Amino acid sequence: MADPEPTILMSQAEFARRRGVSKKTVTEWKGKGLLAMTADGKVDVEASEWNLDQRPATYRGGTAHRPVRTVPKPEPDPRKAKPERAKPKASEAPPPRPSDGDEGDDLDLDAENLPTPQAIRRKENFLGLQRRQEFSRKQGQLVDRAAAEKLFFDTARNLRDAWANWPARIAVVMADELKVDARTLNTVLTAHVQQHLRELGEPEADLPRSREP
Question: What is the pTM of this model?
Answer without folding.
Answer: 0.32
